[in-house]
Amino acid sequence: MRNLFFMLFALLDAFGLVAQNLNRVTESDVLNQRERHEIRMPHIEGIEIMRCDFHIHTVFSDGYVWPTTRVEEAWYDGLDAIAITDHVEFRPHKNYLPDSLNDVFAIAKPVADYYGILLIKGAEITRSMPPGHINAIFLKDIDALGMDDYMEAIEEAHNQGAYIFWNHPGWKVQQSVTKWWDVHDILVKNGWMQGVEVYNTNEWYPVALEWCLEKNLTYMANSDIHGTISYVFDTKKDPLRPMTLVFVKERGEQALKDALMKGNAVAFFAGKLAGPEVLLRQIFEASVVVGKRFNVIENGDVSIKISNLTDIPFVLEDEEGKNLILAPGTTVIIKVEDYHNKKSLKFKVTNLYYGMNKNLDVEMTF
Amino acid sequence: MRNLFFMLFALLDAFGLVAQNLNRVTESDVLNQRERHEIRMPHIEGIEIMRCDFHIHTVFSDGYVWPTTRVEEAWYDGLDAIAITDHVEFRPHKNYLPDSLNDVFAIAKPVADYYGILLIKGAEITRSMPPGHINAIFLKDIDALGMDDYMEAIEEAHNQGAYIFWNHPGWKVQQSVTKWWDVHDILVKNGWMQGVEVYNTNEWYPVALEWCLEKNLTYMANSDIHGTISYVFDTKKDPLRPMTLVFVKERGEQALKDALMKGNAVAFFAGKLAGPEVLLRQIFEASVVVGKRFNVIENGDVSIKISNLTDIPFVLEDEEGKNLILAPGTTVIIKVEDYHNKKSLKFKVTNLYYGMNKNLDVEMTF
Amino acid sequence: MRNLFFMLFALLDAFGLVAQNLNRVTESDVLNQRERHEIRMPHIEGIEIMRCDFHIHTVFSDGYVWPTTRVEEAWYDGLDAIAITDHVEFRPHKNYLPDSLNDVFAIAKPVADYYGILLIKGAEITRSMPPGHINAIFLKDIDALGMDDYMEAIEEAHNQGAYIFWNHPGWKVQQSVTKWWDVHDILVKNGWMQGVEVYNTNEWYPVALEWCLEKNLTYMANSDIHGTISYVFDTKKDPLRPMTLVFVKERGEQALKDALMKGNAVAFFAGKLAGPEVLLRQIFEASVVVGKRFNVIENGDVSIKISNLTDIPFVLEDEEGKNLILAPGTTVIIKVEDYHNKKSLKFKVTNLYYGMNKNLDVEMTF
Amino acid sequence: MRNLFFMLFALLDAFGLVAQNLNRVTESDVLNQRERHEIRMPHIEGIEIMRCDFHIHTVFSDGYVWPTTRVEEAWYDGLDAIAITDHVEFRPHKNYLPDSLNDVFAIAKPVADYYGILLIKGAEITRSMPPGHINAIFLKDIDALGMDDYMEAIEEAHNQGAYIFWNHPGWKVQQSVTKWWDVHDILVKNGWMQGVEVYNTNEWYPVALEWCLEKNLTYMANSDIHGTISYVFDTKKDPLRPMTLVFVKERGEQALKDALMKGNAVAFFAGKLAGPEVLLRQIFEASVVVGKRFNVIENGDVSIKISNLTDIPFVLEDEEGKNLILAPGTTVIIKVEDYHNKKSLKFKVTNLYYGMNKNLDVEMTF
């Protein structure tokens, strides 16, 4: 008898019926999932593409979230590395928060280690134009950048071994026309500035692409996030938050820094890529594949599958100016007439830029 | 001539072509929209339903966002009033942030005024079980609650005129079974506790519904949010974040407090409502309408439209146990056989609770 | 003993565990919901707005779904009335399907009655330009329109009491420029054509708005759907499928026809409205409300809530050219400086058109 | 002068402004995208996994769409092969459509060739229980199956070289308990039945998994779609429409048939897999990868990344009964305590079944 009773209640309990009816019901399905959504990148032989955001703020300057939250956001959003870059000089919450910006890194580091996110120590040197706002990352001591003379601050960052870049050069608050100043020539000449944001938040600056070409600067796109990332970018849909794609042989802080110094990076923003032509071509060729099987329709016409294996969209324009959109992870079909006498298809990739009006040209041979 | 040139460039400029090609392109569509999504409530004659969350944390205790962000989240999520209730005693960031919790309210208030969100001053008195965690809202001076004896702290809150409630009574960290303790009887007897969370984060406690009935406590559901709201609740889909729906004659802080003291509130969580039977009936009858036009099918059968005008889902079970789901803002069709001899339809509303296993029964007459 | 066993299995059965483990598991949540998503329209005193699509095809001409499916699509998509308008002359499936197009109406009618969708009998008279494709709805006998001379066919439709309109006047297959022909003047003069599609599928024709003004034609937008509606329009997101909003005193077939004949209709497409200025103003004023409570910020500035109660988006442009988007069912906040000396706000509603470049101007007084 | 005017209008035209203002505006973004969403499958050396649906209806029996639409749906939904299987005997539209079901295949084949979808000729032999509904695919002449005696019909299908399976064995309309009948033994003994649907539409039959084990039948899941696929399954979200995953060396009709005959298939439905244990293990091991880098936290604890490369979800239960969900294309982090003394992790995969209550057990070694 007792066994049967036991068996009865054990069964009910096993099916959670006891708990359900009396004490506690956990609605696991009402919470957002806590996993990381991987951003599919092309597989390029011998290359790792690191997905990075190098311009991020927290409550310690004029942001609104705690440093550890920036690491969690990066994890959910599929990033590999971030730099938190609070303003050295602009600290609206300073009545509540301490002076040292080195604390920011110390607070976020253990969480970054847990998630395997590479956390870079950085800061934003904040001045009117020129030179505007300058980010320095891979710093040793942020508090040492507090001097009045911005040249001294930038030199100090350089002496700490920083990679240095110009933020939102065309920010309308600072200049209505996206203009390059003499001081930027000096910074480049001194080796005190190696990159520039061609995209920031939701704005981009086509002229800045020309600067990258002429002055050999690294193309960058960053979020410059101050509030909650998902209230600015919908991190579950396209376009993704802005990011800088850095090409390294092997993942690691030194490799990341070397690649940025060498210009081995592509800005990924608003469904567009901007970077060196050679890198754009590597990305395109490893992302887009023409289907093996051609389906013969009639009299030498065939339909051909073109697939995009990545989360980078590609917008192709054919020689008649017709558009072909390769959305992330999708396949489209095109009809090729007189297949036997046609050996290739030529396209301009209108969302891939290496210069102001310079798009990547591609050819698909078969 | 000059006029024509002028006209030409004026035109180009008007269409944004100058800007586009040279300086700056603003991708307005990449940002999430910044508007408030209204949560549709039923229109009940002479009643305003306030959508509230009375359990929220910030960086000042163990949360991860700045106080003003909580107001913005409330705005986007369609709430009318919130209480920020940081822990008086548990302050993991205290090396970085000041002692006074009154600052939290001072920081958030101007932003709340801008958005028209009613901000209530509150705090969480944090103890092991019993009595567990106790929220006090409508406080004057949070810092005055810092005494060691929790009874003294609760009395102080009461003396400040606070509305006081028991948080997550069945939180498994504190007790495996959702148990009521003698001390809670004392709190109720003293008039030092008027409500209880029947739902917190993603957990609810059916037994607590019985306490509300027996001890005349106010039914509440709150988010107890610590991180970014949208990383816990997907604020653009159902179910919405947990909230307490408070019934007032006219919106305002005093009216809100009086209604809570009187128990004129319904917990809204995980697609369910829990509250006094009379309020559940008011909500149902003002939310669900039977379509005017009946469509005759044949031999006395008709099809009838039933519409849900609100963002509250209703799950109906008919007398044969068949389910009928009325999703937010939708209409369903049902077939009524032998319409002339049938004068009404009876349903149990299985997602509306006034007690542990007590669902609202409704009848639709026509 | 036997009782206990019985009790045990009765219990298991009650909780569906027997069924679950042995026979059958129904995954109710894997299916799309079958309910109707209501499209929120403004409440205008004494007016009912009928949501209609008057240009739809089935397998009986060159479409791909069965007539009853068109009724179900209309139900899910929140429409009130549809006309199925298969081509009289173009019947690619005629080897498989019968000659009479009157069958189409007969097949769909019982399902329309069940759902309470008003089904209008119609057809498309299909000719090259001029006059292009002409829809006739409220027909009695479609098969009687089969004559070679299109004028005779249109006259026959007129004699059957049809409301007649010109489809996709700027369809590039028929004419590269959206041109009005003499024959259309004759049709209008004879009273054989009362409306025109200013929008079809995903194309619109701003010049046609001027024709509506000059020639007193009814503004229309229709889907011209051939395949599955949800493979062309994502019926769960904005913009909704194209539709014609018809203003009637009371719902019904005769009232609908009269309203169309009188021009009491507005085309709703791609997040835009096109129709008579007076109707656009009625819609705007009943859709957009300025919040009662103004929130004083400081020195005479206030923040004001503006809400859109409907599923029609409104894009406002203020006097400085700044945009304000009122998305469906949302509220935005604007700051009004020097409130005491400002008595109203003026906007141009850039997505509401009564003519080619003629947008509705509105003023919000307070 | 004339040049300037020309230049002016050429420019305007180049930017599409002429067209925009006068004739035609194409709203390309209002239409759903027409591309195929690839379903990510694991890469198993020497194996191709074909995504198939072998139970589909059209207007020619009791379905509601034209045969070609079934091919387009398969294309969008990421399938590789389908069989259209209209009822031989049940033809509610027969007043409108011809007798021959061979037409169905003839109509759909050219569209299948264009899209590269493998189209299999099939039919449903429709009887009460026993034997219930029987699908025969890889047929030559469907019309030859019209005899009264179902045994004769099944034998004819067999003689045409068909692969034959039992549909929805537990369909409640036919039997309340999912029961196996003597006639099914005869069919198996004769080699006239090689598979069974363990899942159909939104129902599955755990007992049928045992039949697959005992009687060596092929596990299958099919949609049995009659209406529009996207009104039954939301083809843009999980779970995907039901499908049968067939393991072949090389894609092709004969290879597909052989694999089905041999039982090299797995049913994929409602976020679950059901199939032979060996195939489930191949899928799991090729889908789930443990991250290379382990992040040391402290005293021998590490955090480990586990990624799911596919669109198949995996629900793991560890030895303490805790769940770990690996959603499609996502990565989760787990903490491994005392890493140095732990060499592996053991899980039960609770959504992968090879029998009624038999889940795949897996071990992750490192």
TrEMBL record, chains A, B, C, D:
SUPFAM superfamilies: PHP domain-like. Gene3D superfamilies: Metal-dependent hydrolases. The keyword Signal applies. Residues 1-19 form the signal peptide. SMART domains: POLIIIAc (SM00481). It comes from the Bacteria. This is PHP domain-containing protein. It holds the Pfam family PHP. Residues 52-129 form the Polymerase/histidinol phosphatase N-terminal domain. Keywords: Signal. One of its GO terms (molecular function) is 5'-3' RNA exonuclease activity. InterPro entries: PHP_dom, PHP_domain, Pol/His_phosphatase_N, Pol/histidinol_Pase-like. The keyword Signal applies. It comes from Cerina litoralis.
